[in-house]
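COMPLEX REQUEST
Ligand: 1,3-dihydroxyacetonephosphate
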Amino acid sequence: MRRPLVAGNWKMNGDSQSTVSLVNGIVDGRGDVTRAEVLICPPYILIPRAADALNGRDDIALGAQDLDINQNGAFTGQISASMLVDAGCTYVIVGHSERRAIYGESDQDVAEKFRVAQEGGLIPVLCVGETLEERESGDTENVVARQVQAVIDVVGIENFDNSVIAYEPVWAIGTGKTATPEMAQEVHKFIRDMLSALNKDIADQLRILYGGSMNAGNAESLIGMTDIDGGLIGGASLQPDSFLAICTAAN
Ligand code: 13P
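STATUS: Structure written out below.
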């Protein structure tokens, strides 16, 4: 039985004050959400603020939105896996479509980040997903398969046992357009089948999250699908009420 995971990707939003009130709001309202695992991924500089507000609670996990492939040294502006662990992170997002599209990260770069994250003791959340153009030209499965295969080629299927995949159709991110539960399920099943052909046990236990305009209103029907094990939430993770409603739906 896979434990659902609801992850908030705050992207480049917030400040010290909003971080403390958002974390407090999640902590206070979490209540009955015990089955679903809850993860928040603030901007780097706000991670220590969030950790302070959590005040030692480990029922809400902390993650980062990216990392560098190097351990330390002359890499101006970058943050390493060991720094994230030191700050209290257990997870890190790799290959978000915004990193791929805006900062030019290749499948190979993302695969290296996945490897370095795991080697550094972090659980990578690997994001994959097609653009609208790719979906309309019938390339969804090819794109997702290529993105997943690039990571398998670098780390091997056995290293997917301690990772998470997030399927985030690019056209659904921040647009208010959501994949229907059936559309999302089809891609989630495709990913699981692809991994299952290599290692059924690993595929069966791997959590595959959906991301892309998930909100309080659509979370239950999406997470209710067989191969959808939770969500990676952008906009709706910035308010305790909407984020907690999704956590409750996943629980
Ligand atoms: P939205 O929930 O704002 O569409 O963002 C999804 C996302 O990109 C999460 O990583």
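REMARKS: Residues 9, 96, 168, 173-174, 211-214, 232-236 surround 1,3-dihydroxyacetonephosphate (CB under 6 Å). The chain has eleven helices and eight strands.
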